Amino acid sequence: MFRKLVLALACVLFIGTLAGCSSEDNKDENSSDKGKVQVVVSFNPLKEFTEAVGKDKVNVISIVSDGMEAHDFEPKAKDMEKISKAKIFVYNGLGMESWVEDTLQVIDNRDLIIVDSSKNVNAIKMQEDDHEEDEEDDEHEHGEFDPHIWLSVKEAKVQALNIKNALVQADQANEDFYQKNYQEFAGKLDELYNEYAQKFQEVQNKHFVTGHAAFAYLCRDFGLEQNSVEDVFAEGEPTPKRLQELTEYCKENNIKVVFMEELASPKVSETLANEVGAKIQTIYTIESKEDGKDYLQSMRENLENIYTSIK
Question: What is the percent of the chain with per-residue pLDDT over 90, rounded to a whole number?
Fold first, then answer.
């Protein structure tokens, strides 16, 4: 209920903002962006995919700023205004952005091309205990599938293809350009997959531990198994029983590293690592641009660090 009230207030502010816009405001737009396809995305990985395919023919704005948690984000009037002025709006889907449906209902842009980037992905259904506590909670509308599809190099190809198709729809004159860029990006994803599929095939231990259960798709790509301190949506603290189970899991599977994400609380992960004599190491969720690395660099580092920790 609170989320809907926030959106309703944002809608009122949004209408007022549009009413206050003048022709003078439009003159302040960056002249270098004129002629480019204007794309608004929900958060960072979609921005990177769009820029990989669109390159210098797109101007991409991300609604969720770096360092903000995409799961809990609520759009403001200025965010709605950005979407209303765009040619294309791209969101992740699978319940990652609980605000999208309500927001799009108030956007006054009949020509807006809306891209659910999860279309045609092979989605992983969450276990009941991953989200059963949220079923009655009006504050959380996560859905029944794990939304972290961009952390699979295979599913990232599907997301990028959905974006490529939207760019072609918006700018048919440059179809060959977008197709070429997509094939180039997809090829790099394939190379990364092939390299690490071979590496992981050669190791016996397939287990690793993270602070946040965001890597189910990566695990499916490479036949790995994650065990995590926090659930898929990084909500709540683990019970003493859960922490004891994790401790036993780490000892049984000779866990040398506990991976920790930038936006997850480090305290429990650090406690677990100390308990089992493991070290803490960064892993990228890529929800934000981290350490100046792009998507391919972040994914390669993730895969190499996981491989090194289990070989």
Answer: 68
Q: Is residue 198 part of a domain?
A: no
Gyration radius from the chain CA atoms: 21
Q: Do 168 and 67 sit in the same domain of this protein?
A: yes
Q: Residue 254 sits in which domain range?
A: 203-310
Asked if residue 43 and residue 95 are part of one domain, the reply reads: yes
Q: What is the pLDDT of residues 53-89, one digit of tens each?
A: 999 999 999 999 888 877 778 899 999 999 999 999 9
Tokens 């070989």 label which residue? Answer: 311
Query: Of 161, 154, 172, nearest to 49 (Cα)?
Result: 161
Half-sphere exposure of 234 (CA within 13 A, CB side): 22
pLDDT digit string, tens, across residues 18-33:
444 434 444 444 556 7
> What domain count does the chain have?
2
Q: What is the DSSP string of 252-298?
A: HTT--EEEE-TTS-HHHHHHHHHHHTPEEEE----SS--TT--HHHH
